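Customer escalation, tier 2.

The customer says the design service returned an amino acid string that "doesn't look like it belongs to this structure." They asked us to rerun it and document both sides in this ticket. The original structure tokens are below, unchanged.
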């Protein structure tokens, strides 16, 4: 069986001092995570993130800066022959009033005040690391 890579791209969206977290199902449980998704063949990482935000949240975004690229091996929880690579950007919405949940998997939008967010507010270990990186 061949080994594959799954590149995931996520955005930290801060609006009026609050950070957006999504509540959605993953691997049989409900988790809290940053918005984003999987890179498709033929697109760059920032193109991927812009597409994901349009498809899931009806938002056009601007990339402000790169926050973090995962630099350690992470095996997929869903496929033992798949390696995950995660990339994070700080982003901003061009017009937050357009925000609308379009993806039926998203159970809730959670806005956490930046001054109160903690790594334990997110379920995935790499997302938790990003909270610390972002607040620095």
């Amino acid at each position: 069986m061949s080994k594959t890579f799954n590149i995931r791209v996520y955005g930290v969206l801060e609006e009026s001092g609050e950070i957006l977290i999504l509540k959605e199902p993953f691997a049989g449980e409900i988790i809290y995570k940053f918005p984003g998704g999987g890179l498709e063949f033929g697109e760059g990482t920032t193109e991927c993130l812009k597409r994901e935000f349009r498809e899931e949240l009806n938002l056009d975004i601007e990339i402000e800066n790169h926050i973090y690229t995962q630099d350690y091996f992470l095996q997929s929880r869903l496929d033992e022959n798949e390696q995950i690579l995660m990339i994070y950007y700080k982003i901003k919405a061009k017009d937050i009033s357009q925000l609308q949940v379009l993806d039926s998997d998203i159970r809730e939008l959670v806005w956490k005040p930046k001054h109160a967010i903690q790594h334990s507010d997110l379920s995935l270990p790499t997302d938790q690391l990003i909270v610390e990186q972002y607040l620095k």
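Tier 2 assessment: The sequence is consistent with the input. The domain at 4-135 is CATH 3.90.79.10 (Nucleoside Triphosphate Pyrophosphohydrolase). The chain has one domain: 4-135. Sent an explanation to the customer and offered a walkthrough call.
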